[in-house]
Amino acid sequence: MKKFEDLMPPVDRIRKLTLPALSQRRMAGTSFEILNLAETVLDSLCKRGKKFDLFTEYFLTVSAQSLNAWLGVPNAYRGEHERLYSRLSPDLGKGEDSNPEDALEQLLDSFVRIASNDSIAPGLIDDLRRKQVSPTETGTICCLMVMAGLEPTANASALACLALGISDMSKVFSFSDLNVDELLRFDGPVFPGAFRWATEDTNIGGTAVFSGEMILLSLAAANRDESVFPSAKDLVPSRPNASQHLAFGAGLNRCVGAPLAKIIIQSSITVIEDFEFRKIETKWRDFALRGFVSIPAVPA
Ligand code: HEM
User: Fold this and answer.
1) What is the distance in A from the centroid of ligand 1 to the CA of 201?
2) Do the Cβ atoms of 81 and 61 come closer than 8 Å?
């Protein structure tokens, strides 16, 4: 089989094909399912009643299951997909021998198999089949959505949980204050930022940039720009221009999955808000994304 990167369709085609599955109407339908699914994950952790990992067993699991639901992965495949998703990143620390290339190959095969099946659940895979997209292209797009969406969303949800003071049981904001855009502005997961390459000699804010040079755009710094967001270091749920944040990037390459990510974050936080637990420690990750390796906790 060709290398994964060689199978990747052009960005504008990916956007066009995935747009209907991210429409307001579809998101409204999916949000109820995602809320239910987050409740079920938390219930099963509560029933266990002992130490659990808030990051891997709650936020990451909710993100993985939400992506499965949105893609329309049939129930019979969901457990195996969750295991493969967690092996796509060497940072997820599941203790398994996480060979990401091998996991990606298996995942692609599995998506291709699903897309070739006759009966599939409603979701992105079904949309693409109706548009006669080949199973290989469908599988490639689904893998991209998981690779680009899983970890940023789980980390954004966990960062939001910490920002809201939920984990310290020192809540200063109530659920009615929940403003996902402001939470993403305040502390987003994309780190160190987006990369671009200059196509011509130019000057940015007094610094000469030469054609071919790489530019690192710090989205986090932009989100704390005082001239755009007064009192930028404070979390202000009623901030009128919170949606101008750049946590999802901007322009042609702005995050395709932003509407879905916001629903997953909102559901994860809503469900965990009234659950009382005590964090034991927090292990931050130190590479590629701002976020976590694990957040061990016990029910209070
Ligand atoms: C809070 C969660 C998320 C954050 C903060 C985030 C952030 C970003 C950012 C900053 C970019 C642009 C990178 C650049 O300009 O170079 C991006 C691109 C992308 N994101 Fe997300 N993302 C999130 C969730 C998701 C989800 C859930 C999906 C899929 C369902 C997704 C799919 C993608 C894809 C496919 C691209 C590439 C778009 C392109 O190159 O045109 N993301 N994301």
Assistant:
1) 28
2) no
